[in-house]
Amino acid sequence: MKAKQNQMEKLVAFLKDNGFINLSSEPYGGFSSSYDYGPYGVEIKNNLKKAWWDTMTKEFDNIVGIDSAILMSPKVWEASGHLTAGFADELVECKSCHKRFKADELVENKCPSCGGELSAPKKFNVMMKTFVGPIEDNTSVVYLRGEACQGIYMNFLWAKNSARMKIPFGICQIGKAFRNEITPGPFTFRTREFEQMDLQFFVHPSEADKYFEFWKEQRMNYYIKLGIKADHLRFADHPQDKLAHYAKKACDIEYLFPFGWSEIEGIHNRTDWDLGNHSKASGTDLSYFDQETKEKYIPYIIETSAGCDRTLLAFLSEAFVEFEKGRNNDSESVEYLMNLNKKLAPVKIAIMPLMKNKEELQKKAREIYDSLKFEFNTKFDDSGSIGKRYRRMDELGTPYCITIDFDTLTDNCVTVRDRDTMAQERINTIDLKNYLREKYAY
Ligand code: GAP
């Protein structure tokens, strides 16, 4: 257990030191378990979002994407059940220090902070409130969305009609959601501001069970294909008495984090709850008319909802490797490797002129860098020994390092070093682009 804790602490420190993820508002000591993505963190996060987006919209012809607003009519949240007990945690409050705790997480019936007496459990809604317009009164209260998917339901008709979609079809979206979480952490696993990657798949009620199983399998395969070991993933069905207020059936995909098995994605059969309630509350008919069978019905929704920050933490945990005596077991110092899937790697190629102050090497290296940088995310690195630069690139997870040496100036060949095998290959610069394209043809 201690070793696992250490592993998480090392990962968090490593992610900060190497420009991946850090506390928000760091000069002020951090803020409310919010996190910022740095120069490499933002690249890998964008790569993850693109991988997910391409999986949804390119592998499946019957899925379209949207991007809806974070602020929506508060009526949306009334109809969805989020303002009532459905989206609330049971909290107890300490009568002495007034701290609040989740009732179901307490081991003893006394305050874990000061030992004081606790109040009876009370529901606490996790929706975040703000105001629209200049007057802050009850009429201007709005909510930061508690789940991104409600924006999809608001666009069900528009997306279906404008993209001429027929059931079964899906609408996907990547977007921020906010929850006033009582117990955030560890690290980016549970935060108050986070991003979700949602698919809402609309089906005939009779096919809901079939598509629930279909999407479970698809989503599990996605994680394995992107580099997570199958035995670090598992399904966890929700027991009937623990289902969210909107779900008839639910299953999580869990990942074996250093702090234990925890949910990274939720798959739900939301039935006709959402479109049914929004139809009633808004007066807009959100049913579907099947032109062939002449049947009119409220579609059932199969939802797959993955946390972007949380799944990214899973990919980073999976890829992080520490070598106590270097990668070749011959060093006095610890070396780290981010063994990321190439698709996710923040830097795809590093260009390394052998020496910094040799003009002809610099010129040739810059030429190669300029020819690659718009197609691949490429980094120019000319400081320190080549060995040191390889180690730096291993830490960022850069799959290929290209060295330009004095022979390059006569034979036009460069050395390409592979991150995973550490093998080196001489490649003619004329063939370099195609060589790399092949390496990156997923
Ligand atoms: N629309 C359904 C929904 O929101 P959920 O199981 O509450 O379902 C889906 O959330 C996913 O969103 C989770 O599996 C998790 O990856 C991510 N998520 C939820 N709350 C989060 C939080 N506070 N911080 C980071 N990610 C979170």
Report on the structure:
It is built from 12 helices and 23 strands. It has 442 residues and is α+β, with helices and mostly antiparallel strands. Helix 3 packs across helix 7. The longest helix is centred in the N-terminal third of the chain and has 21 residues. The model has no long low-confidence stretch (mean pLDDT 94). The structure holds glycyl-adenosine-5'-phosphate. Glycyl-adenosine-5'-phosphate binds next to strand 10, strand 13, strand 16 and helix 8.
Q: Tell me the strand order in the biggest sheet.
A: 3-9-10-16-13-12-11
Gross geometry: globular
How far from one another are the termini? 37 Å
In round numbers, the mean pLDDT is 94
**What hetero molecules are bound to the protein chains?**
glycyl-adenosine-5'-phosphate
- Describe the main β-sheet briefly: 7 strands, mixed
Radius of gyration, in Å, reads 25 Å
Quick one: how many beta strands? Answer: 23
SS class: alpha+beta
Question: In terms of per-residue confidence, which ranges show pLDDT below 50 for 5 or more consecutive residues?
Answer: none
- Work out the helix count: 12
What share of the residues does DSSP label as strand, in percent? 25-35%
Helix content: 25-40%
Task: Give structural attributes.
442 residues, alpha+beta, seven-stranded mixed beta sheet, binds glycyl-adenosine-5'-phosphate
Short summary of the structure?
The chain has 442 residues and is an alpha+beta fold. It has twelve helices and 23 strands. A hairpin with a 2-residue loop joins β12 and β13.
